[in-house]
Design brief:
The complex is a heterodimer.
Chain A (H helix, E strand, L loop, with lengths): L1 H26 L5 H5 L6 H10 L6 H13 L13 H36 L4 H15 L2 H15 L12 E3 L2 E3 L4 H34 L2 H8 L4 H38 L5 H11 L2 H29 L1 H7 L3
Antiparallel strand pairs in A: 1-2
Helix pairs in contact in A: 1-12, 5-6, 5-8, 5-10, 6-8, 7-8, 7-10, 8-10, 10-11, 10-12, 11-12, 12-13
Chain B lengths: L1 H19 L5 E6 L14 H7 L7 E3 L5 E3 L2 E8 L2 E6 L13 H11 L15 E6 L2 E5 L19 H6 L26 E7 L3 E6 L15 E6 L3 H9 L5 E3 L6 H6 L3 E16 L20 H10 L2 H8 L4 E3 L22 H10 L7 E7 L6 H13 L4 E7 L1 H8 L9 E6 L6 H9 L19 H12 L3 H17 L4 E13 L2 E2 L14 E2 L1
Parallel strand pairs in B: 1-10, 1-11, 14-15
Antiparallel strand pairs in B: 2-3, 4-5, 5-7, 6-7, 8-9, 9-10, 11-17, 12-16, 12-17, 13-17, 18-19
Helix pairs in contact in B: 7-9, 12-13, 12-14, 13-14
The chains are: A mainly alpha, B alpha+beta.
């Protein structure tokens, strides 16, 4: 058992190293950071001096080793553009992304589960068909288009919601939250719907198909035979049993939501990590890019590690073969 | 629908009015890029320096018409050809209450030349600053230089005592491990104080009530909120929804939409930047061409043919939606009095074909073209138009349009000028022709020593000789004459194919009055909110 855990942690470290390496190799194709750091009239010698000071003239393997060595100690360097420590900058942007992702996930669950239940129970009703069609739109329309449509309707035409940014935030220690002000909450509505729409559709369809399956099982028939009310059968027995895969999927999707917040954050100028990352790609700000990619890689590795370890407890068969593989 | 819309609008306006009656006059604006480090010597770039120009001040500044005005220096004179004397303004205080005096100027002069500074071009190497008394500074040059103070409007004076007390003597650089105070806070003499700076997100300013020029009543603002909104569509939406008083730039295709709204309008005007096409004239064989063993662009007839093939009016009307001024020279007429003496080669595809045939390319040839797609207004669309215009005279152009990071990495000196035919834009930081003549027309070697941005490697020794003289000629009339001569030579030889000065397009709310300067710097002290 312990051997299995150690083995998995070792594998995770290896994955992180590969992520770092791929990211690093990618940077050599993305453009010259020095050209983005200086004004047009800076002379060639000064550009070369800067390149030297940044260590960009070292051979790539040395640069990579330096980077990994520093990253292990939690030092991701100084942003080329902002001239500030990258770890601090990502720390400042993290709350915005996490709050947005959290609200999106809640939205996806709160809207997705009832819709899924409804469409399973009343398969032929018009509302069900409406839900299913809308969910098709949610899956097929690209995020940025949904975002722009929402902005056009609710911000420009109706003037009900702010078109972009976080509104007023309250600082609690190092965490900045938009949950405590009216403008902060209003600003969360459109971005979280945009970001959560895809997950909502996914959950709705998952709940629907699971429900349909469960409703055909024997114990539901027996429950009905016992004369229980529909309500108790549907929600007490059927829904409870459909929720297990939903919880698994939601957990796994949380990583995806955080990682894919990039587009939503760009459309709504949401000051999170994704926006910072996208900007850094345009500016060839390598320290920010590498730190962000590592962080996202780390997030997925951790989620997978937890899932793997949970399976060990749930399924004894893995425990037995685990030692051999 | 429209009634309902206006009812809701009215409801919101009244709602806003009741709250804003108590609130102070806050001006909110958004730009596509970010204000990053606040250190005024870290980056020589228009937006950063323009924004910091509201907080810091130089010895000089530029007015709405871009004329040089006194700022921290009240007056100056050239005592000897190589000695300038600046009389400093008395009674000016930095935001922290410190007095401004000659020591601060000397400190700033030293700092702007130190390692990590990106503004080393503000005065020539070897220039000495001498303190005559607390409010007089002499500048001693190694050679006469009539444009010494041309770029001083963006060379900001920093408080010596404050910098020393706050670990900010060294210029903030990405290679340092500790970010200095000056990168996060500002202490200038200007019209506004930075009250909070969340880099890349939001920066807030408060009016400096003790500003020395506050009495002239140029603005009526109490505070300012600046935000970055990178996405074009979102930026325009923020203006149309009334959240912003000013957003810039706005895409040319949205100008009508902004004008159609009753509460907003588009403010357009010429910008200083000139967009042009360049051709590799230095290599013996083009890197990306079907012609082998020789370089067609070394033949002036081919360059002329390319020029004749460009239908600039079509580019102006169709691609730029009339927000461009076709140009015959390589800088804006704002910066060159004799611009009227020059005219473009006319659009003449038949003439172009004849010239190509004469040069031995009657069947045309193939050439690669590099173009940025996120740097200038509709840059990629201009390149596509050029491709189809050249196709009509038999030249097949293979367009390679890329984001600016990759584009510049390929075509600039750091990429060994790896291009045969390209589109570029240029604004001389000094607003002076010498900059254009050295950077774009000066002979260069393969590494780029000489004309660093002369990507095509155009070279004419006579132009180089003239531009050396232009640098040190103190007599304005003689100087103008020499500049005109130099441009005559470069345009006759078609060193470049100038296209146009692109236009500025700002989206402005109707409750705001402001000045749009052609250098695209927003001076907040000209903003009035009704």
């Amino acid at each position: 058992m312990l051997a299995f855990v150690i083995q998995r942690i070792f594998q995770s470290a290896l994955v992180m190293l590969v992520v770092a390496l791929i990211a690093f190799v990618m940077f050599t194709f993305i453009g010259d950071p020095v050209d983005q750091m200086v004004g047009l009239e800076t002379t060639l010698e000064e550009r070369e001096q800067l390149r030297e000071r940044l260590g960009l003239k070292d051979p790539v393997p040395i640069q990579f080793l330096n980077f990994v060595g520093n990253a292990v100690q939690g030092d991701f360097g100084i942003s080329y553009q902002f001239k500030r420590p990258v770890a601090t900058m990502i720390g400042e942007r993290l709350p915005a992304t996490l709050e947005l992702s959290f609200v999106s996930a809640i939205f996806a669950l709160v809207a997705g589960i009832p819709m899924g239940v409804y469409t399973a129970l009343r398969r032929n009703s018009i509302i069900s068909k409406f839900f299913l069609t809308t969910s098709l739109i949610g899956i097929s329309l690209p995020t940025f288009l949904i975002g722009i449509l929402l902005i056009d309707v609710f911000a420009v035409r109706l003037g009900l919601l702010p078109s972009s940014q976080r509104g007023e935030v309250v600082e609690i220690g190092w965490w900045s939250t938009g949950f405590l002000t009216a403008s902060g909450l209003k600003a969360l509505i459109m971005p979280s719907i945009t970001l959560g729409l895809f997950q909502m559709t996914l959950i709705m369809r998952l709940v629907r198909s699971e429900m349909l399956e469960v409703l055909r099982t024997d114990y539901i028939k027996f429950a009905r035979a016992r004369g229980l009310r529909d309500r108790a059968v549907h929600f007490g027995h059927a829904l409870k049993n459909t929720l297990i895969p939903v919880i698994t999927i939601t957990g796994l999707q949380l990583g995806t939501i955080i990682a894919f917040a990039i587009i939503t954050e760009t459309v709504f100028q949401w000051p999170g990590m994704g926006l910072l990352f996208l900007q850094s790609v345009q500016d060839v700000d390598i320290p920010i890019m590498s730190a962000y990619l590592l962080l996202i890689g780390f997030l997925f590795v951790i989620i997978n590690l937890i899932v793997d370890l949970l399976y060990v407890f749930v399924d004894p068969r893995i425990r037995i073969t685990g030692g051999e593989t | 629908m429209s009634i309902r819309k206006s009812l809701i609008g009215a409801a919101i306006v009244t709602g806003l009015m009741t709250t804003s009656a108590l609130a102070e006059n806050t001006f909110k604006y958004a730009f596509q890029g970010s204000l990053k480090s606040l250190d005024p010597y870290s980056l020589n770039e228009t937006f950063t320096l323009g924004t910091l120009g509201n907080v810091y001040e130089g010895l000089t500044r530029r007015g709405p018409d871009l004329k040089i005005e006194p700022a921290l220096a009240e007056s100056w004179e050239i005592v000897e050809p190589t000695r300038w004397r600046f009389k400093l303004r008395q009674g000016v205080k930095f935001h922290n209450g410190n007095d401004f005096n000659a020591d601060d100027v000397l400190f700033s002069a030293e700092r702007v030349k130190s390692e990590g500074s990106d503004l080393k071009t503000r005065f020539p190497d070897g220039t000495k600053f001498e303190k005559v008394d607390d409010y007089t500074v002499d500048v001693i040059l190694t050679a006469p230089n009539p444009i010494l103070n041309a770029e001083w409007s963006t060379w900001y004076i920093i408080d010596k005592e404050w910098a020393e007390a706050n670990n900010s003597v060294k210029v903030t650089s990405a290679s340092d491990q500790n970010a200095s105070t000056i990168s996060l806070q500002a202490n200038g003499t200007g019209a506004f104080k930075i009250s909070n700076h969340d880099a890349g997100v939001k920066t807030t300013f408060d009016a400096n009530k003790d500003w020395w020029d506050a009495g002239s009543g140029k603005h009526n603002l109490d505070s300012i909120e600046f935000s970055t909104i990178a996405s074009d569509a979102t930026r325009v939406a923020a203006l149309l929804s009334g959240e912003m008083d000013l957003v810039y730039p706005i895409p040319v295709q949205d100008i009508n939409r902004v004008n159609a709204s009753p509460t907003t309008s588009a403010l357009t005007g010429p910008e200083l930047r000139t967009i042009f096409l360049g051709m590799d004239q230095i290599r013996d064989e083009l890197l990306e061409s079907s012609v082998k063993g020789k370089n067609p662009f070394k033949d002036v007839r081919v360059r002329k043919a390319f020029y004749h093939a460009i239908d600039i009016e079509a580019i102006k009307a169709k691609v730029m939606r009339n927000l461009a001024t076709p140009s015959a020279i390589m800088l804006s007429p704002f910066m060159f009095e004799n611009a009227g003496q020059f005219s473009r080669l006319e659009y003449n595809p038949d003439g172009a074909k004849a010239l190509l045939a004469e040069a031995g390319y009657g069947d045309g040839f193939e050439v690669g073209m590099d173009c940025p797609n996120d740097r200038y207004v509709n840059d990629e669309a201009i390149c596509q138009a050029v491709v189809s215009m050249l196709a009509k005279v038999g030249v097949k152009v293979n367009l390679n349009a890329q984001p600016k990071a990759q584009y510049f990495a390929k075509v600039l000196a750091s990429g060994s000028f790896n291009t045969s035919f390209y589109l570029l834009g240029w604004t001389p930081g000094s607003f002076d022709s010498w900059n254009v003549l050295t950077n774009l027309h000066g002979c260069r070697d393969e590494a780029g020593n000489g004309g660093l941005f002369n990507l095509g490697g155009y070279c004419n020794d006579k132009v180089d000789e003239l531009s050396a003289k232009i640098l040190s000629e103190n007599d304005a009339a003689t100087r103008l004459d020499m500049i005109t001569q130099a441009y005559k030579m470069t345009t006759d030889e078609v060193a470049y194919i100038p296209l146009h000065q692109q236009g500025l397009a700002w989206g402005v709310s109707s409750n705001v009055d402001l000045v749009q300067r052609a250098d695209n710097e927003l001076m907040l002290y000209y903003v009035n909110k009704k």
